[in-house]
Amino acid sequence: MAFILTHEQGRVIRARTGFYDVQYEELVLRCTLRGTLKKKRRSNTGRRLYADPVAVGDNVIFSQLDHEEGVVEEILQRQTKFSRQYAGKHEEIEQIIVANAQQVVAVVSTHMPPLNFRTLDRFLILAEAGEMEAIICLNKLDLVKDDQLIEIKTTFEIYEKLGYGVHYTSINIPHSFDSLKSALKDKFSVIVGASGVGKSSILNAIQPNLELRTGEVGEKTRKGRHTTTLVELFTLDNGGEVADTPGIREVGLWGVDTENLEFYFPEMEPFLGECKYNDCAHVKDSDCAIQSAVECGDIHPERYRSYVILKTENTTVN
Ligand SMILES: Nc1nc2c(ncn2[C@@H]2O[C@H](COP(=O)(O)OP(=O)(O)O)[C@@H](O)[C@H]2O)c(=O)[nH]1
Ligand SMILES: [Mg+2]
Ligand SMILES: [Zn+2]
């Protein structure tokens, strides 16, 4: 290389603990963080704030060290972020999974792992909290019988009515990925879901040359390096970009105002302000418009269950 880049703008396309691959035109540099950035992980009092200060999708200022290494100098302002509460810690630590994505693709499967509306609702709330649009993909359609499928699709109509696009897919059903593929066109999306729902398989079906490893817990990189890739960004030939994420087991809410959790459930909006008590939590309170709406069938019981679980897990309900 004839010259060494200093303080250029690049983008993080791959992240694993401590190392970030930063892309600048055709060049990809393995970067570490400048010491001043590492400090950003902690508050002034020394409390840890972030699992990692840099995420895939971040636009950064970097400097090159040699033909394959560099250092991240600065992180540019984020438009959006998909974050969760860092798993297994009692402290309040934010884990930014992807920065600057426009859309969240929340994947669930019919079986293996079983269909879980609680997890799905958590992903949708995190998308809302991070100011991204969300679409839903129900994968492994081939694992259910026709009559079961009809029942499942009826339940998913709730989500369609709420305005979420729902895509029904299976790696064993040709063309089932066509509609999802169009939904990814020209957008930067992040694909999330429990381990094993088929996220990597879906990306392979949409773009076979990605050759992502599937069916594994710890994923190795395609070049066979024995490192665990946490999150990786891919470009699709239709102009879309997708960040594949490893299975998110615990979807701890982050950036969500749980005092006002009802605002994250669009179907509750028409009933807000109609409860007897101003500070109604809509859980056990009497004369509650939300609970009445559930009884009348105006709010789906599955969605209400998600609300109650999240509300009681995050706040004390009287
Ligand atoms: N029957 C069936 N199996 C699938 C489908 N999609 C993925 N799988 C399988 O599910 C397992 C997990 O898939 P993978 O893509 O690694 O899931 P990820 O952890 O979400 O990335 C693999 O063994 C896949 O072959 C599907 O549509 N139908
Ligand atoms: Mg995967
Ligand atoms: Zn109420």
Structure notes:
With 318 residues, the protein is α/β, with parallel strands linked by helices. It has 3 domains: 8-77, OB fold (Dihydrolipoamide Acetyltransferase, E2P), CATH 2.40.50.140; 85-89 and 97-244, Rossmann fold, CATH 3.40.50.300; 258-314, Orthogonal Bundle (Ribonucleotide Reductase Protein R1, domain 1), CATH 1.10.40.50. Helices cover 22% and strands 25% of the residues. The protein is built from 7 helices and 13 strands. The chain has helices at residues 35-39, 117-129, 146-161, 178-184, 199-206, 289-296, 301-314; strands spanning 8-16, 19-24, 27-33, 59-64, 69-75, 81-85, 94-99, 103-109, 133-139, 165-168, 188-192, 231-235, 241-244. The strands form 2 sheets. The chain has a 5-stranded mixed beta barrel. It has a two-stranded antiparallel sheet with strand order 6-7. β1 (8-16) and β2 form a beta hairpin. α2 (117-129) packs across α7 (301-314). The termini are far apart. The relative contact order is 0.12. The protein binds guanosine-5'-diphosphate, magnesium ion (MG) and zinc ion (ZN). Guanosine-5'-diphosphate binds at residues 139-140, 142-143, 170-172, 193, 195-201, 214-215, 247.
